[in-house]
Specification:
Blueprint: E1 2-5, H1 7-15, H2 22-29, E2 34-38, H3 39-50, E3 69-72, H4 76-81, H5 92-104, E4 107-110, H6 113-116, E5 122-124
Parallel strand pairs: 1-2, 1-4, 2-3, 4-5
């Protein structure tokens, strides 16, 4: 199974795994699954930290590789896929994650109810 972690799920996976849904946590740590982190999520987290909305652990970005997460770049095809998305969610970071998941056929792990309304393949985070 291929999974794409929503930003809040990524944060919990690395800093507070007990916050995750038990089923999602199992799938995220399973070596049978390929777990992606979008560069858009890392950008979002860095912005939120720089404006004081959250504090990331000092080694947060360095923890991605040891956790087994693969980085998913934002490609032109992902940006073009935004055209096909209805305006359910106004958050640009969430919208690009949906576009990436749909374009790549990846299951998006999230708890965001607005994202769930897009009708793609989702797993409760």
């Amino acid at each position: 199974m291929r999974l794409l972690l929503d930003t809040h799920v990524l944060l919990w996976a690395l800093t507070d795994p007990q916050e995750l849904d038990a089923g999602a946590r199992e799938k995220i740590v399973s070596p049978e699954n390929l777990v992606y982190v979008s560069l858009a999520s890392l950008w979002e987290l860095q912005i939120k930290e720089s404006i004081g909305k959250l504090k990331l652990p000092k080694d947060f970005f360095e923890a991605l590789e040891p956790a087994g997460f693969e980085l998913l770049p934002v490609l032109l095809g992902h940006i073009k896929a935004l055209r096909r998305l209805p305006l359910i969610h106004r958050d640009p970071f969430d919208r690009i994650l949906v576009a990436q998941a749909k374009s790549e056929g990846i299951t998006l792990v999230t708890r965001d109810r607005d994202i769930l309304r897009y009708g793609a393949d989702f797993l409760k985070g």
